[in-house]
Amino acid sequence: MRDDLARLARTVIACRRCPRLVRYREHVARTKKREFADWEYWGRPVPGFGDPRAELLIVGLAPAAHGANRTGRMFTGDSSGRWLFRALHRQRFASQAASDHRGDGLRVRNVYITAAVRCAPPDNRPARDEMANCAGYLRREFALLSRVRVIVALGQIAFTQVLALAADDGVPLSRPRPRFAHGAAYLLHGRRGPVELIASYHPSRQNTQTGRLTEGMLDAVFRQARLSLTRTPRRD
After folding, report:
1. Distance of alpha carbon 191 from alpha carbon 76, whole angstroms
2. Are 144 and 4 in contact (CB under 8 A)?
3. Engineering a disulfide at 88: which of 94, 116, 199, 202 sits with its beta carbon 3.0 to 4.6 angstroms away?
């Protein structure tokens, strides 16, 4: 499994399917942000990372232009990541409460972190065809992460992409279709067995600086994820 995920990561990193995203991510890597002028930006698609035997899967939107597009690791080096890793650390899913670069010693426990889109999109808004181009990577990760029992979707785009995964796995998404709402949880019964999907607002500045998402609200989502993992049988 670890080797398969590593091969998938190499495929993701080499991807150039979306011309607009290629131009944008490489432009950002060349021009940089003043405070990161001495960094050599990653400037490529960003693969998922974490425990290959993870039971918790976290799906975000996309790399931040000066976060993961700079550091080469999801949610690393930006404000969204600071919120996420603080919450994960408090629930003992992460070894430390901050992550600034790939070699900073962060270890996640029983967690795999990925995103719906692998390149930083302009204005954090991927186009529909760009999401479709990336969907296969998420689908392949989900297939390889066979022990996943809980998925936390950060934001509506991630939530929608996870529902598409569920449909591929044979989950009947009958009416009423699961709707995105912070803290909403749905038990999805597919070919691989039950998987709980928990929705959360994305810890973007747009949400955290306006108070739409508080640390307490994000903590509650990961407390719920941990509780769900204790209640459902493990997959060996």
Report:
1. 33
2. yes
3. 94
> Cα–chain-centroid distance for residue 234?
22
What are the φ/ψ torsions at residue 186 (nearest 5 degrees)? -135, 135
Give which of 97, 48, 102, 96 is closest to 70, Cα–Cα.
Answer: 102
CA distance 202 to 225: 16
Q: Which residues of 197-228 are buried (b: 16+ CB within 10 A; e: fewer)?
A: bbbbbbbbeebbeeeebeeebbebbbebbeeb
7 vs 1: CA distance, rounded Å = 10
What structural domains does the chain harbor?
2-231 (3.40.470.10)
Of 231, 225, 46, which is closest to residue 134 (Cα–Cα)? 46
- Whole-angstrom distance, CA of residue 167 vs CA of residue 182: 21
- pLDDT exceeds cutoff 80 at 113: yes
**Dist CA 58 CA 35 (whole Å):** 29
Confidence of residue 167 (pLDDT cuts 50, 70, 90): confident
The C-alpha atoms of residue 181 and residue 202 are separated, in whole angstroms, by 11
Question: Residue 108 carries which DSSP code?
Answer: B
